[in-house]
Design a protein that fits this description.
Strand order of the largest sheet of chain A: 1-4
Shape of chain A: globular
Largest sheet of chain B: 6 strands, antiparallel
Order of helices and strands of chain B: HHHHHHEEEHEHEE
Shape of chain B: globular
CATH class of the largest domain in chain B: Mainly Alpha
Radius of gyration of chain A: 19 Å
Distance between the termini of chain B: 35 Å
Number of domains of chain A: 2
Distance between the termini of chain A: 48 Å
CATH topology of the largest domain in chain B: Cyclin A, domain 1
Helix content of chain B: 25-40%
Number of helices of chain A: 10
Helix content of chain A: 40-55%
Strand content of chain B: 15-25%
CATH superfamily of the largest domain in chain A: Nitrile hydratase alpha /Thiocyanate hydrolase gamma
CATH architecture of the largest domain in chain A: Alpha-Beta Complex
Structural class of chain A: alpha/beta
Order of helices and strands of chain A: HHHHHEEHHHHEEH
Largest interface: A-B, 86 and 104 residues
CATH class of the largest domain in chain A: Alpha Beta
Structural class of chain B: alpha+beta
Oligomer: heterodimer
Number of strands of chain A: 4
CATH topology of the largest domain in chain A: Nitrile Hydratase, Chain A
Amino acid sequence: MDWLSMKDVAARINALESLMVEKGLAEHAAVDAVVASFENDMGPLNGARVVVRAWTDPAYQAWLLSDATAAIADMGFTGLQTEHLVAVENTDDVHNVVVCTLCSCYPWTLLGIPPAWFKYPQYRARVVKEPRSVLGEFGVVLGPDVQIKVWDSSAEIRYLVIPQRPAGTDGMSAEELITLVTRNSMVGTDLLTSPQAA
Amino acid sequence: MHGPHDVGGRDGLGPVAPGFLEPDLPNWRYPFEGRMHAVTAMAIARGAFNLDEQRHGIELMPWADYTDSTYYAHWLFSVEKLLHDKGFLTHEEVDARMEELGEPQMAEHPRKPAELSPFAQQMIDVLWAGTPHDLPAQAPPRFAVGDEVVVKNLHDTGHNRLPGYLNRSRGVVTHHYGAHHDPAASAHEQVERPHHLYVVTFAADELWGERTSESFDLAADLFEDYLEPLAVSV
C-alpha cells in the first residue's frame, strides 16, 4: 500500500467501504446521505446566521457569549462537533484565532468540514508560535495594539469566532448581513470588510 | 503521545500552501474523502470503535507516512487498523477487495436518497444530535479560575490530548468546564471516566522563550492530571 498515492488511497477506501457494507458496518446509500448532509446542510451559512443574530440582537449576543451551546441549540444547530461550543468575540482590542494542533477539531454543524489549510501541518504548527505572521498569509493585518488570542482546541470544546461587524452596515437586513460573513472570519483568519470597501 | 500528529510549534513546515487559500476550494476535494468520513462516522455509530480510538490510530501512523500523505489517508490508516485489530476484517481482505474492484467510480457530490433506510436516518440523526462528552464529576476540582499552574512534563506513549509544546509551561487557569470524559480511558479502556477540564492561558514568551518574535496569549483545553499547582517559594 502506498499511502502517498491518491489513486491507491481512493481504491483502498473504496475497498474498505465495500467490506464494511458486507460486514454490516455501513450502507452505500447511507454514505451518500451522510456526505450530502455534510456538503449541503452543514456549513458556514449556519455559522453566519448565528453571527448575524448576535450582531443584531444584544440579548442573543449575551447568551451566545455566556452559553454558546444553548444559544446555537435554539437555532437547531447542535450536532456532531458542536456538542460543547464556546463563542469568542473579536473587538477593536482583541483578535481571536482557532486551531487544533493535534488533529483538526472544528465545529462541523456551524462551519462544515474544515478546509484543507486548517487540517494540514503548516497552519497547525505555526499559528501557535507566530500567529501574526500566519494571519498575514491570509491577508489579515492587525494593528500593533491588537492583542491576539490563539485557542488550541485540544479537547472536545469547539470554538466559534464572532467577527466584528463591518462599518457602514447599519441599514442592512439580516439576509444581506449573512452574505458578508465568511467562513474564515469565524475561525479568525479573515476580517470582514464593509460592502462599500469590498 | 507526542507522535507525528503533535505538530504545534514545529519549525520548517513552510507557509500555508497558497493553493489551500483559494476561497472556492471545496472542503472535500475528492469523492473518496467524504466517503471515508462517512464510513468512519458509521463505524463509530455501530460501536466498532470510539472517536478517541480513531484519533489514537492516526497518532500511531509512521512519521514519514503521516507527514507526506493526505488527510484522509490518516483516517484510512486508523480505521483499517482498528477494524483489523478488533477482528471485523483483515488487511488481507482489504488488499484482495482492492485488487478485485480496481479503480473506483465514485460519484461527485452524491445526492441524499429520497428514501432513507433506518440506518441512514439514524446517521443523519447522529449528525444533528451529536454525542456529548461531559460527565458528572466524581471529585471536586483541584483548580479554580485564577490559579497559576504548570503543565507536567508528560511523555506518555498512549493517547492523551496534551500538545507537546505545552510541556512544563506555566499558565493561568482561565475557565473550568466541569468534567469531560478522559481521552486516555476512552481510547485504551473504552470507558467514560470523568476528568476535570480547564482552559489554561499561556503567554507567548513562556511558550517560546524571551526571544520570541510575537506577543500573544494562547489558550488550551487541558485535563486536570496534565497540570500541577505552580510551586510558590516561601
